[in-house]
Structure formats: C-alpha cells, structure tokens
Amino acid sequence: MDMTAMEEAVAKEKALIIDRKYTCPVCDKQIHSKAVKSNSAKFIDSMADLRPVHNNINITKYDAICCPHCGFAALTKNFTKTTSTQRKLIREKIQANYKSHDETESDIYTTEVAISRMKMALLCSVTKGGKDSEIGNVCVKISWLYESLAEEIDDSDPHAEEKRALYIKEADNYAFNAYDHLSNARMKEGFPIAGMNETTLDYLLAYYAYKKGEYQTGMQLLSGVVTSRSVSPRLKEKGLELKDMLSEKLHEND
C-alpha cells in the first residue's frame, strides 16, 4: 500500500472512532481509550473462525482498554468487572513492576499496537485468576488480530511469505489456547460463554478441533450445531461446510 493510500485508510478509520474516558478500577486514575462509534462499522461477514469482517474498520483492534498508569488491561466489557481480590493481585503482580507512562497519542490503533494491548489484557486476565471464558475470549481475539496482520502484509515485501507464515503460526497458537480454555469453560460455566450461545461455541470449538487435527472431536461438537432448530442460517451453512471438511479428513485417515 503506497503512502497516500495508507494515509487515506487512516483518515477513514479515524472518522469512525472516538476517545472514551474511563476510570481505572485498579489505580482510580482517569484514562482514555479509543472506541468504535456506535453503528459506524458495517458488518459484511465472518470468517470460518468467526472473525468478524467489516468493510471499513477492524473492530477487534479497539476491544481492549489499557491503563498507562498501572498496567491494568481488559476487554471493554470486562474492564470494570473486577473484585477487590483481583484488584489486589493486579496491584501486587502487575502495577508493582509496571513503568507508568503518558498515553501515546495516535490517530488510530495499528494492528501491532492492538495485539500488544490485547496481550496485556491476557496477562491481566491470567494474573487476576479470571474465568476460563474470559481468558479464552481474549485468546480468540489475539488469534483474529494475528490473522489480520498476516493479511496486511504487502506482497512487495521481500519477506512477505516468511512474515505471513509467522503470523499465522501465532494465530494458531492463540486459537489452540482459546480451545483449551473455552472447552474448560463449557464444562464448568453457564451460557453465554465469551458472548456465545451453545451452538456458536460448539461450532468454534469444532473448527479449532479441525485445525488441531482432532477430527472425531470436531464431528461430535458439530453434531448439535447442524441439527439445532435455533441455529442461524449463516452459522448452519458454516457448520455444514466444516462437516464436509471433517468428513474428508476422517475418510483420509480410515
């Protein structure tokens, strides 16, 4: 992408985001975080791993809030939901080692910046003893961001293939972490899990099982998805496509 096209893309994205004020629940300081304006992102479709695609902005880049003063970070929906015990753990294990800094001024969050913010949210989720559903949800989003990063690489880059392979490998690593945590959440927690109902979660777990080569598990998880009467047509279509892919692999292995 040439400089002018890049500047235009940044200007378009900037028009769709706003600075929101928050009070950090850990250090009580006022902070800012960029957020996508309501109804400004036009949804087109979702990928096989449910990564949402919008025609004008990658909304996942704006789904983590980070405090530059104490280091606390979380997904937007979880930012204010901490217990006193969790806040104590963050102060002892994150804030005590965190170098406070002024908020970085920028027009938008690049995908690289979004990944580092999301990784901070993951570190905090694990440190405060967050539920498997929360940790799994953050891992899903990091996986999506690495996929986006792989797509952003310009073909003219002499190391394009190498970088893409590296980012896809990272995406898979986080997807498999998400698989483990969300599988645990499915056994122990009530729905919705990570914002998903039962059929949506089972589809995602089936897709991850397919990626891991656990084809029989994938097929079992998918059975309820394709037969459910309440499943959306869009998800049912994805489920049937995945079922064909799993069947093919199982036949190959027979």
Task: Describe the SSE topology.
Blueprint: H1 3-14, E1 17-23, E2 30-36, E3 43-46, E4 52-54, E5 64-66, E6 73-75, H2 84-93, H3 111-127, H4 132-152, H5 160-188, H6 198-212, H7 215-227, H8 233-253
Antiparallel strand pairs: 1-2, 3-4, 5-6
Helix pairs in contact: 3-4, 4-5, 5-6, 6-7, 6-8, 7-8
Question: What does the model show?
Answer:
This protein is mainly α. Helix content is 54%, strand content 11%. The protein contains 8 helices and 6 strands; from the N terminus they run αββββββααααααα. The strands form 3 sheets. It has a two-stranded antiparallel ribbon with strand order 1-2. A two-stranded antiparallel sheet has the order 3-4. A two-stranded antiparallel ribbon has the order 5-6. A hairpin with a 6-residue loop joins β1 and β2. α4 packs antiparallel against α5 and α6 runs antiparallel to α7. The longest helix is centred in the C-terminal third of the chain and has 29 residues. The chain is globular, with a radius of gyration of 19 Å. The mean pLDDT is 94.
